[in-house]
Design a protein that fits this description.
The structure is a homodimer. Chain A is α/β, with parallel strands linked by helices. Chain A is built from 15 helices and 15 strands. Chain A has helices at about 5-15, 45-60, 65, 75-80, 100-115, 155-170, 180-185, 205-215, 235-240, 265-270, 310-320, 330-355, 385-395, 420-440, 440-450; strands at about 25, 30, 40, 90-95, 145-150, 170-175, 190-195, 220-225, 245, 260-265, 360-365, 375-380, 395, 400, 410-415. A 7-stranded mixed β-sheet of chain A has the order 4-10-9-8-7-5-6, sandwiched between helices. The first copy, chain A, has a 4-stranded antiparallel β-sheet with strand order 11-12-15-14, with helices on one face. Mean pLDDT of chain A is about 95; it is low at about 120-140.
């Protein structure tokens, strides 16, 4: 028996999380399946941002550093993120961009490996030596651990940062396919840098198993949680991960270009300095001393003055996700959201298979729940870009990602369980059916190919 | 004949820039002399920020990358900054924090010096070799130019970043007093890193002369314009400076933690990569290629996704300064503002000398216009902190900076000519007189020293 619109409505009617959707302003006529690019606007955000602008900036002016506790923002918001990624209070800061944070943590991880191989230190668990700053003098080292391993299909900006840092710090970036992970993990690997949920395929790594495998060969792990935080349960401490960073404007709904976050395992946090040693990461930032002394713990991962207004937007976004905690006393917000997320992506896959058979679509995202993020990607030999454009013209917003030698072009659909409903899934697939069956996408394809430029 | 309140009112009445003040929301009962810490709120900002939040984020969602031209923001705003610092369109980007930007440009300058000393390259004007990325492999170099020279009294975060980069890149940070500059410039100096206007004293360097002296020994210059942009005329290209960065939330009125800016001399801009090689600085950012290829020119100084809402605030701030262009057809905004700025600081100095004689205050800021920023600092052996607190309690907002071995504690007053008037100067000094003559500050001092903690 095939799935019907009535079935989808029944799922919405039974959905215990349905009211969470009321936290958002969703544009009229839009079915938004792109929360993995930019989350939607929380209803609370305009008023809160206006308050920060008019009151904290306009009236409080410089006094708001004290009266509005601006200095606490990165750590106070970090504590909220911690509840979503299996971390503890005091372990996360919200700051800078994802790329900048990746630079900091990858630098720290590489410095840690160099320090552990320095003469006279043979134990993998030894603390860093010397001035406690953990930045070895450049060059001269005949390090055994010379590789940073990552996936060829990792998000490009992660690879760009790693490429630059490897060249700078004397490491080699080795790119592999996920299937080669087991064989790639050798005792030459200094750092395994992975994105937990792949941006293009939606495939999810088993963080605990992969981290254990990395640790077994003495490698440290750096996890990018851009498509995980707010999307799937993450258990950083339970996985004994080493470093992690993530994005504030996707599933965390923090607004365009919202500050990102960084997490460091407590066992590393107080030991290594990252090189972006600005005033906000100083142990005594208001003493204006001429020499840098890193703050204890993750506080040293802060650098310059943070965008206060943008942080206010991020906090509104974080609160929309944390509201799901009310629906699951023991498992936290993400356990409740995960159940719905899987139901949404299962439904989408089932409807596409029932209604788009023979239309040339292939399922890219794993069927196995344990390997799936909160998105579904379809590939097609022809017209993927044009189909996405035709859907957007109809108000169904997903996005397109180019294929490569291993895979045709991709149609990507993100399902944020906070605001996407089951009936939305039905209508999205209905539009997809119509775009494919009417050949309406061919007009978009014609226009693209024949555009007068 | 001493200066009177009526004299000050007359100066306001004659002030051609008086209407520029109407661009701002100034809190009731506040005399704000701290625009060098955080500029005041432009009246246009709340509505513009609300529009970005509700329309661009809320309604446009991911489509706003195209429809609202988010991708152009850092360079479009950079072009506005360029008009204030003697730079050309396309030479400036607004992005990240001042500290992060300093890391980028100082790294680039140090890499440039290393590349120029690499084997086979003896001419100081040679372009970088190899892959054009300018990041030499670490270590092994017996560089003649091993020093980064800066002022001991430079803003601490600048010194922290330099300290970290020097250790990382194999250079030595040498801190001097401004008076030692001439002798410190030797052919061992790779980079001279200075803040144009000192944050604590208000003393201003002669950028052109200092740059020429640095170039004469083969050093590159990195200028921090945090207390210059929007405060004093800056002529980067005319001075043939090499690299510069600056702050968006002080005299540019961009809001708390507003994005900062970076400028690179066109002759260097296309040659060197900075290590924060994120997607936004890629030559083809939307192609998602796995390898980094830096954008031409200053675009490569962008890294990750920028805070769109914060950039909207910064643009409103920039527009308040650029509004002064209407008052000086040939000299630009800063020429008009400089005339008023000097009149304000001259008046403040004169009133303090006329009315606070014998109160133990010393003038820290240079009397010479050519050496003065847009602030006036006074020092006092006793009670500086308490006096500033007593003034703030009266609504006169300046700030306190601790002294050192060379100078007692400091009372710092910033004069943003856009919104500070001559009568404001009168009343500020009147409050200072009362705080000193009544000894009212001693109560604050008593409370500070005897606080129950």
């Amino acid at each position: 028996m095939t799935t019907t619109l009535a079935d989808c409505r029944a799922l919405d009617a039974q959905d215990p999380l349905r009211t969470l959707r009321d936290q958002f302003t969703l544009p009229e006529g839009v079915l938004y399946l792109d929360g993995n690019s930019l989350g939607v606007l929380p209803k609370a955000a305009p008023a809160r941002i206006a308050e920060v602008v008019a009151k904290e900036w306009g009236e409080g002016l410089i006094r708001s550093w004290n009266t509005a506790s601006w200095f606490d923002l990165p750590q106070r918001l970090g504590d909220k993120v911690a509840r979503l990624i299996g971390a503890a209070p005091g372990e996360v800061v919200c700051t800078d961009s994802t790329s900048v944070n990746l630079y900091k943590v990858l630098f720290a991880a590489l410095s840690q490996q160099k320090a552990e191989e320095a003469p006279g230190r043979s134990q993998a668990s030894s603390p860093p030596s010397g001035d406690g700053l953990g930045v070895p003098s450049p060059g001269g080292s005949q390090s055994r651990r010379k590789l940073v391993v990552s996936e060829r299909s990792n998000f490009p900006t992660d690879l760009y940062i790693a490429e630059s840092l490897c060249r700078e710090r004397g490491f080699t970036l080795k790119l592999i396919d996920a299937s080669e992970l087991a064989t790639a993990l050798t005792d030459e690997v200094a750092v395994l840098m992975l994105t937990h949920v792949n941006y293009r395929t939606g495939a999810m790594h088993d963080m605990k198993a992969v981290t254990a495998a990395a640790h077994a060969v003495g490698a440290l792990t750096v996890w990018d949680l851009a498509h995980s935080a707010g999307a799937v349960p993450v258990a950083l401490n339970d996985s004994d991960a080493d470093y992690a960073i993530g994005c504030g404007y996707k599933y965390l709904n923090g607004g365009p270009g919202a500050p990102a976050f960084a997490w460091v395992n407590t066992k590393h946090a107080g030991q290594f300095e990252q090189p972006l040693s600005g005033w906000w990461g100083h142990a005594a930032p208001f003493e204006f001393t001429p020499h840098y002394r890193p703050a204890p713990g993750v506080g040293r991962y802060l650098c310059g003055t943070q965008p206060v207004i943008a942080l206010a937007g991020l906090e509104c976004g974080l609160d929309t996700v944390l509201a799901a905690e009310a629906f699951n006393g023991t498992g936290g917000a993400m356990a409740a959201l995960r159940t719905k997320s899987l139901a949404l992506t299962d439904l989408f896959i089932r409807l596409v298979e029932e209604r788009c058979a023979g239309q040339g679509l292939s399922l890219v995202t794993p069927r196995d729940h344990a390997q799936r993020g909160s998105q579904v990607c379809l590939s097609r030999e022809e017209g993927a870009y044009a189909i996405v454009q035709a859907l957007i013209a109809r108000g169904v917003i997903g996005d397109y990602r180019a294929g490569d030698s291993q895979m045709p072009d991709i149609l990507r659909f993100g399902f944020t369980p906070l605001y996407v409903g089951f009936e939305d899934v039905w209508h999205s697939v209905e539009h997809l059916v119509q775009v494919l069956e009417t050949g309406e996408w061919r007009r978009a394809e014609f226009n693209r190919k024949n555009a007068v430029t």
